[in-house]
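WARN  no MSA supplied for this record, continuing single-sequence
INFO  ligand: flavin-adenine dinucleotide
INFO  echoing inputs
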Amino acid sequence: MTSQAVLDALIIGTGFAGVGMAVQLQEAGIDNYLVLERAGDVGGVWRDNVYPGAACDVPSHLYSYSFAQNPAWSRKFAAQPEIHRYVRDCAQRFGVTAKTRFHSEVASAAFDAATGLWTVFLTDGTEFRSRALITAMGQLSQPAMPRVPGMERFKGEVFHSATWRHDIDLTGKRVAVVGTGASAIQFVPEIVPKVKSLVLFQRSAPYVIPKGDRAYHALEKLAFAQAALLQSGSRAVQFLVHESRALAFTSLNKLMKVMELQFKFNLRRQIKDPVLRKTLTPDYPMGCKRILLSNNYYPALAQPHVSVVSGAVQAVDATGVIGPDGRHHEVDVIIYGTGFKATEFLNPLQITGLNGVSLQERWKQGAEAYLGITVSGFPNLFMLYGPNTNLGHSSIILMLEAQMGYIRQCVSRLLADKLRYLNVKQGAEQRFNADLQKQLKQSVWQGGCTSWYVNEAGRNVANWPGFTVTYRLRTQRPDWNDYQQAS
Ligand SMILES: Cc1cc2nc3c(=O)[nH]c(=O)nc-3n(C[C@H](O)[C@H](O)[C@H](O)COP(=O)(O)OP(=O)(O)OC[C@H]3O[C@@H](n4cnc5c(N)ncnc54)[C@H](O)[C@@H]3O)c2cc1C
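INFO  complex generated
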């Protein structure tokens, strides 16, 4: 166990959130911070998700930091290696890598009211003390494996898309894919040409619309690099296009009909077999689950050696997968494209606040926070990509940057006024969440589907029900009246 000097801020995680937050602290003149990362490199989901075809589905000019725009993006929707390189370059360029302690997994954190400090413990017992604790652990950083009877008995190869096994050659193999979410629709078309057969188990069909992707011409990239206005202009146009879509998800659900037409046209054009088309037609309102973008998913499923099985997998045995109709599908490899434990915020971290209250206990009915950032009873704890700050319509980085600005002001205030702690008032947090849940009731996400936005109790703990601009305005400046300030 090591005893360290007291830090001003401690950040957990080095995805887009953690790296950006560190840059913001530095800009505010706060250098006495440390970043902890359980892996050996920065990048978050873009370090981990190395499956074939991994790419963003928000245009890269918008899916990048506003303070580090990148004229060199090779295409409109960059692929994983390029996005990972970008995060890594930013971390290096802004000096964040040097402030990061890698292979350092945080196990727990406890707040001491007398000193106003967090004590943070790594899994190896190492201990740190800090005034502010900033979690940047992502919503999609813990892969979710389904609980299928007999799955441990399978004798072939098994892996999850977020821990892709590149050492397993899929050429000529019989492969089962479980899940049809955002990852599956990206990797399935990539592996279909090499496998002997592929059976795709689909619990519910996703809405897939075309991806307006293309490579940027060398001259375009040169123009973006030479004229900053062009680069910002491209970002601004993409911002407006995406922002306008928020209406369809939240208050004006009828606007979704336009995208639905696009979906129907796409499906009809790419899938000629009426039976398969029916199988691939979702039975819930569009937008209720994440809308997916792809040009090659449907054509891949139309291949003769590919079959789609609707319904939940019944069981797995030594040689294959038993589908919902009881039919046994013999396979060599099972790939789980079953997503992430998105509603289990900050798990499995044990966080203890004032009076020994555990955050997990507090969140038993579902995670919630004030502005998705602070929780009453957990002073000096600030979250990035916390509860209800996910989006269905635009770049998460817009939300993250709003949070970074807010947290930066809170940490500056703590230090400048030598406060012991800032604790959001319970009333402010409750009012905020009552209003938020009311707005979510009108959203398309309440359309009756099961999605990773909604927890087991039926509460949407993931999404922000509005424009990113509204969120930015709400987080522009902390309202100190909402906080108990202890000195
Ligand atoms: C495949 C994929 C594609 C996506 N595409 C898009 C897209 O196109 N547009 C979009 O807006 N969003 C997209 N997202 C959502 C994405 O999660 C966010 O955009 C964003 O990258 C989140 O960044 P983050 O830093 O908050 O979290 P992450 O990137 O998840 O980073 C969290 C970091 O915390 C570390 N960590 C976690 N727990 C601990 C611990 N206990 N101790 C130490 N370190 C810990 C992790 O190792 C990781 O490095 C995508 C997500 C995935 C998985």
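The pocket of flavin-adenine dinucleotide is lined by residues 12-18, 36-39, 44-45, 49, 54, 56-58, 63, 105-106, 136-141, 183, 349, 384-385, 395-396 (CB under 6 Å).
INFO  checksum written, moving to next record
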